[in-house]
Every structure is written in structure tokens, then in C-alpha cells.
Design a protein that fits this description.
This protein is α+β, with helices and mostly antiparallel strands and about 180 residues long. Helix content is about 30%, strand content about 25%. It contains 4 helices and 7 strands, in the order H-H-H-E-E-E-E-E-E-E-H. The protein has a 4-stranded antiparallel beta sheet with strand order 1-2-3-4. A 3-stranded antiparallel beta sheet has the order 5-6-7, with helices on one face. A hairpin with a 2-residue loop joins strand 6 and strand 7. The longest helix has 21 residues. The termini are far apart.
């Protein structure tokens, strides 16, 4: 599915597949034209455009992971072939303050990379893919980030599944100094 989409739409649908982000994006699309809906649509649109500019409009993420809570505060991490982009939101659900920021680093900036498999070696690879459920963590500027697969839903995309998460892990692993 994602290969047929423009990179900007690929990013949008990948974000929409993350927990909490799907309800935010639905609220933005279904919103009224009142002040609160307009503010939320503007902030959300600016966030997505900021991520597109940070990563490059013609670049697709390798993997994306994250979520929002009930106040629409949270973040997602998007690993691109040469960059890591982190989008963070704070209280988008409230009228004030409601804010976001987008940070970008080269993939080589990731430090203290850690990986965790849920596959059991003793059960063999024929009873499940070793990459299923893989999670990894890393640090950027002394802040820890976790990248993990998203449970499959109607909105989930391949960018948040185990295979993509493992590809992002290998990318960061192989760019370590």
C-alpha cells in the first residue's frame, strides 16, 4: 500500500496508524469550523509539514513508532535512511497551551543502542519470525527513545510493524561509529 502513495501521504497514514494519533487525525478531519477545531487543525497540519520539511518531502520513513495519551500529549519517532525525526506534542486537546516541536538528528547521532527480542531461540525460527515484536532503544542528547511495533489495527501500516522496526534498528546499528 505505502509504495503507491506519495511520500507525504505515506507519512500521514503511518502517523495515523499510531495509538492516539489516529483519534487526533480523525478529530482534525471531522472537526467543525469553530475556533478549537481550527486551532487543532492548524497545529496538527503544521506538525506534519514540519516533519516533512525536517526529513525531506521526497523521503519515506523506514519505520515509525510512538503514541499519544488522552490529552493528545506524546510523541513519535520516525527513522529515515539518514535521519531520526522526533515529533513531540503537549496538550493538543486543551485550548491552551497546546504545542509541538520537531527535532532532527543524523542517524549516526544515536547512542547506547539496545535491542530486545520476544522470540525464543529454543523454539526455533520455524515457529515464528525472530523479528516479531522486536523493540529497540537509543539515546539522543541524553534523552531515551523507544521504537516498538504497533499492534495491528485497521489504521496500522507496514511502517510500524516488526519488520520495519527491525530494519530501522539495523540502520542505526550499522551507522554507529
Amino acid at each position: 500500500m505505502t509504495k503507491d502513495l506519495k511520500p507525504s501521504d505515506d507519512l500521514y497514514y503511518s502517523i495515523k496508524g499510531l495509538p492516539g494519533w489516529n483519534s487526533l487525525l480523525r478529530a482534525v478531519q471531522d472537526g467543525e469550523s469553530d475556533g478549537e477545531s481550527t486551532r487543532l487543525r492548524r497545529l496538527t497540519g503544521e506538525l506534519i509539514s514540519s516533519v516533512l520539511l525536517a526529513a525531506g518531502e521526497d523521503t519515506r520513513p523506514v519505520a515509525i513508532s510512538g503514541g499519544l495519551d488522552d490529552e493528545w500529549s506524546g510523541r513519535f519517532v520516525a527513522v529515515y535512511p539518514t535521519l531520526i525525526v522526533v515529533a513531540e506534542t503537549e496538550s493538543l486537546y486543551e485550548l491552551n497551551p497546546g504545542s509541538f516541536n520537531v527535532k532532527v538528528w543524523p542517524t549516526s547521532a544515536a547512542r547506547n543502542l539496545k535491542v530486545r527480542a520476544v522470540h525464543n531461540y529454543f523454539k526455533g525460527a520455524d515457529r515464528g519470525n525472530r523479528t516479531d515484536g522486536v523493540t529497540f532503544r537509543f539515546e539522543l542528547d541524553d534523552e531515551a527513545y523507544e521504537v516498538k511495533p504497533t499492534p495491528r489495527t485497521a489504521d496500522s501500516t507496514p511502517r510500524s510493524e516488526s519488520a520495519a522496526i527491525y530494519e530501522a534498528f539495523k540502520l542505526l546499528r550499522d551507522t554507529q561509529p
